[in-house]
Amino acid sequence: MGYASVMRVETTGASWSTSQQDRLGCSGVAASHTMAQTDSGRMAKYRSKINSVGGQSGIEPALIAAIISRESRAGNALKDGWGDNGNAWGLMQVDVNPMEVDTLHVVVGTVWSTSPKPREY
Asked: What family is this protein classified in (predicted)?
């Protein structure tokens, strides 16, 4: 199954709040581009996995990379695979709420991790 090109999606870009992760003096598309450029070096180690998963699932690798960049800053914002104060797992930051654990999402989240298995609830 294929989807429309992510490169044709119009976006407003990063909010001012989001752009302040990098202390940028701008927001919007310009901030998004700057932040993605900052993450590009860290993203390189995931390139082959992103391309493989994208090809197998019919999802553009650019979309997968964008989610990874935004959610975990290509892993830079993670502590032992965890982010969002321990409430999300992996590069794509799959939410792990102890009241609503979804085994499929926990498993999918571990695919992108370079750390051990997520903690059990």
From this structure: Belongs to the glycosyl hydrolase 23 family.
Determine which one of 71, 100, 102, 120 is catalytic.
71
- The model's pTM: 0.71
94 within domain boundaries = yes
Residue 6's pLDDT band, with cuts at 50, 70 and 90, is: confident
CA angle 91–96–102, rounded 5-degree value = 110
For the chain, percent of residues with pLDDT exceeding 90? 54
Q: Is the residue at 97 inside a domain?
A: yes
The answer as to whether 96 is a domain residue is: yes
Dist. CA 119–CA 79, nearest whole Å: 13
Which amino acid is residue 5, in one-letter code? S
- Domain region containing 116: 78-121
Provide the domain count of the chain. 1
* Candidates 10, 22, 84, 102; catalytic one: 84
What's the average model confidence in pLDDT over 4-15? 82
109 part of a folded domain? yes
Specify whether 84 is catalytic: yes
Asked if the model's pLDDT at residue 111 lies above 80, the reply is no
Q: Cα-atom radius of gyration of the chain, to the nearest Å? A: 15
